Amino acid sequence: MNKVTPADKVYNYIKEQIVTRRLYPGNRIIEEEVAEAVGVSRTPIRAALSRLANVGLVQQIPNRGSYVSKPTEEDFRSVFEARKLLETAAFRNALRAHTEGTVELLKENLEKQEALEKRFDLNEYVSLNRTFHLLLTRDAGNPYYEKYLDELYNKLSTYLLFWDTSADNSRSLLLHNRIFEAFCAKDEEAGVLALLDDIGLGEGDIKKSRGL
């Protein structure tokens, strides 16, 4: 079992602060406060901040400090463009070789999404949405899809948390069910179309909220 290092603890702590909206885009990350909260020295904090910068959650500015990334219009465009290319390619590969285990996990995830319709919670929705899309590419057989999509989903999760104004998950649930049905039937064309519709839904909501 891999040992959790002090840098891992700091990384997870700051990431949690961002995705639970305790830290907002543009907020400065105060190293002294992190050291006190996690109980570590400054060295692992700097290592963790570098990792967070590598996945796009933090921006490091020389002589000024580290800040929660505040995406520009170009950032949004680039992230969604990369997501469409990577996720549809991974989906095609996974669809052809999917396992019953993955189908069952997707089914369980959709059941939780359906339950969420009655008691919508944005944090839970973002978590379930992230898991659903990662499961769709689980059987792609290429670890680089998983690695780079995971980094994109870090960014996308924060976009949804800060700028998605949805009052429920009814629209995404309809699309997720379409994707699931196509996935089970190994209907590549229908699955990719539904997947692109779903990605476009989130992109449109965020752009509208941001006035882009």
**CATH architecture of the largest domain, please?**
Up-down Bundle
What is the helix tally?
9
Q: What is the strand arrangement across the widest sheet?
A: 1-3-2
Helix content: over 70%
Structural class: mainly alpha
- How confident is the prediction overall: mean pLDDT? 89
How would you describe this structure to a colleague?
By secondary structure, the protein is mostly helical. 72% of the residues lie in helices and 5% in strands. Strand 2 (58-61) and strand 3 form a beta hairpin. The chain starts with 5 loop residues before the first helix and ends with a helix. The mean pLDDT is 89.
Which helices and strands occur, and which strands form pairs?
Layout: H1 6-19, E1 28-29, H2 31-38, H3 42-54, E2 58-61, E3 65-68, H4 73-97, H5 100-116, H6 122-136, H7 143-163, H8 170-185, H9 188-210
Antiparallel strand pairs: 1-3, 2-3
What distinguishing features does this structure have?
212 residues; mainly alpha; Arc Repressor Mutant, subunit A; Four Helix Bundle (Hemerythrin (Met), subunit A); 3-stranded antiparallel sheet; 9 helices; globular
